Amino acid sequence: MSASVLRGVVAPILTPFNDDLSIATDLFLAHGKRLLAEGCAGLAPFGTTGEALSVGIDERIEALDRLIDGGIDPALLVPGTGLTALADTARLTAACLERGCGGVLLLPPFYYKGVSDEGLYSYFAQLIAAVKPTRPALYLYHIPPVAMVGLSPSLVRRLFADFPEAIAGIKDSSGDWANTQALLEIEGLVVYPGSELFLLDGLKAGSAGCITASANINAAAIAKVVERFDAGDGAGAEAQQAEISRFRKLIQGPGAIPGQKRLLAMETGDARWANLRPPLLSFNQAEGQAFAEKLGRAA
Amino acid sequence: MSASVLRGVVAPILTPFNDDLSIATDLFLAHGKRLLAEGCAGLAPFGTTGEALSVGIDERIEALDRLIDGGIDPALLVPGTGLTALADTARLTAACLERGCGGVLLLPPFYYKGVSDEGLYSYFAQLIAAVKPTRPALYLYHIPPVAMVGLSPSLVRRLFADFPEAIAGIKDSSGDWANTQALLEIEGLVVYPGSELFLLDGLKAGSAGCITASANINAAAIAKVVERFDAGDGAGAEAQQAEISRFRKLIQGPGAIPGQKRLLAMETGDARWANLRPPLLSFNQAEGQAFAEKLGRAA
Fold first, then answer.
1. Would an 8 Å CB–CB cutoff place A53 in contact with chain B?
2. Which residues of chain A make contact with B109, given a CB cutoff of 8 A?
3. What gap in Å lies between CA B109 and CA B111, rounded to an integer?
4. A104-106 and A8-11 beta bridge pairing
């Protein structure tokens, strides 16, 4: 594992929007700083949780610049850059790497369904030829429940073997531990499970940590599992894992994005946090209150 | 039905690529002109068949300009403009309407799955507020087998009722005649089935024609169904429908795009026609020969 790999909890940060649905860069920066202060090893802006596919290329670049200009070390950023068209993905990926981002998260092209591994291989090979990364900074992003186009372990193995100068690892949001295990068997590949449910099992099997949506509202507790594991406190890590797993199971589901946003609106006092871009919809006050009560976070 | 509606067969034209995978605008223009000469009522560039989601926004605009500058009446063009981010969709849609395109085809935002009708309504309402169309030129594009996010007849009815100044109709690529029938019951809505299998049944029930991929290689025969129907030749239309349905069934399937492209390479003598962008892959010579033989079009 190269020294530049982020070890621990990486937060796929929510993207806050002003009332006109432009990105609220002040909240974005403050939230990013808070999560790092709470123990996150890095931030993954513009993932699925960050409503990435509702945010344009140039908007993403401008918002990243606001994070970096605001004092966040770009080496701690792993933005999502995967779009459906190769030229668009290449432009966004290159912009992130030029800014010194620690990595980027790459969805497969997700419009056409039932595509072959050979076709996906060709896409990534052409992307790497276009971007010409000078360091292993590309993280593949496997999230079949949403993208509906996945990256099989055999495809990942082939890509990693053929492009070790470009590909660093993978985020596995399959929710399938057997799949994560298959990825962890690929020597040298950096693997982040996409949920803290697999955090401790992953650490034991050699993963780098996890990239998990619920870090937006539970970062410190999740980070504590890694701290205890790294300190050799096995029993403490197990106990903490049980606690964060219990919390995670309360959050999971279709309301995870609007629920966490409404909770942040309640807890920070800034109502803009409740805004989402369509096709996703905001939780109203009552839905937010019910979500907060379920989590034991009601005022 | 407004006078500007294209009646008959609209071809979702294949996008030809040079060997470096840039758009081969010379072939694109020649193909568009040939399809219009063969009897197509219009062209729908950058649909699913046109590998739209593998083509960037600016590339699409430049290629459309080449069609228009090359002599194709923009009123005959209904380009696909639906992307996942509203601002991107709005920019591309506005560019097409400014150029006088007869309409645009709008996918729903297709990354997030399981979204609500209310969320999709909000997306289109905000899109219309951003673009401010001055004529009913928006065609919704329902293709659940690929987009995995669909537009229910009740949502379509609501959008058409609330935005009659903007929305003209829908392309229904569900492959489900019951769904097309439900759409045809919405008074004033222009409906194009997404396959010529439903062409004659659609015409009888008030559809405007069809928008079908196989028009790329069978335009004249498909257009003849509409001609005969409009001329009151019921028996002739039925016979022609049987013939084009037989041909269509031979084309359908995952090989439809590479197969038709390889066939055009063979029939025009221009090998560039065989190129596809990843994640889709080209047919090789043998696959193309088998495809041509299946269709009775082998040399």
1. yes
2. 53-54, 278-279
3. 6
4. unpaired
Task: Find, among A7, A2, A48, the residue nearest to A168 by Cα.
Answer: A2
Nearest CA in chain A to B88: A56
Q: Is residue B215 helix, strand or coil?
A: helix
Cα–Cα distance measured from residue B224 to residue B205, given in angstroms and rounded to the nearest whole number: 18
Which of B59, B84, B279 minimises the CB distance to A115? B279
The chain A residue lying nearest B257, using CA atoms, is A112
Q: Which of A279, A57, A88 is nearest to B111 (CA)?
A: A279
CB interface of A with B, residues 89-118, below 8 Å:
108-116, 118
Closest CA–CA distance from residue A73 to any residue of chain B (Å): 28
Contact A105, A139 (CB under 8 A): yes
Are B113 and A278 an interchain contact pair (Cβ–Cβ within 8 Å)?
A: no
Measure CA B266 to chain center.
23
Tell how strand A42-43 and strand A104-106 pair up: unpaired
Bridge-based pairing of strands B42-43 and A104-106 is: unpaired
**Per the omega criterion (within 30 degrees of 0), is the bond before B74 cis?**
no
Q: Which residue of A has its CA nearest to B123?
A: A278
B172: amino acid identity, one letter: D
CA B298/CA A286 separation, integer angstroms: 65
Got the DSSP string for A232-249?
T-HHHHHHHHHHHHHHHH
Question: Across the interface, do A278 and B86 touch by the CB < 8 Å criterion?
Answer: yes
d(CA B75, nearest CA chain A) in Å: 27
| CB-CB contact of B18 with B273 (8 Å) | no
Does the predicted model carry a pTM greater than 0.90?
yes
Using a CB-CB cut-off of 8 Å, the residues of chain B touching A55 are: 85
Chain B residues within 8 A of A89 when measuring between CB atoms: none
| pLDDT greater than 80 at residue A4 | no
The residue behind tokens 């609209």 is B10
DSSP secondary structure letters along A167-181? EEEEEE-S--HHHHH
Q: Where are the alpha helices (DSSP H) in A14-116?
A: 25-37, 57-69, 86-98
The alpha-helical segments, DSSP class H, found in chain B are 25-37, 57-69, 86-98, 117-131, 144-147, 153-162, 177-184, 199-204, 215-230, 234-251, 256-268, 285-294
Which positions 248-267 of A are in contact with B (Cβ < 8 Å)?
254
pLDDT in tens, chain B (299 residues): 344 799 999 999 999 999 999 999 999 999 999 999 999 999 999 999 999 999 999 999 999 999 999 999 999 999 999 999 999 999 999 999 999 999 999 999 999 999 999 999 999 999 999 999 999 999 999 999 999 999 999 999 999 999 999 999 999 999 999 999 999 999 999 999 999 999 999 999 999 999 999 999 999 999 999 999 999 999 999 999 999 999 999 998 889 999 999 999 999 999 999 999 999 999 999 999 999 999 999 87
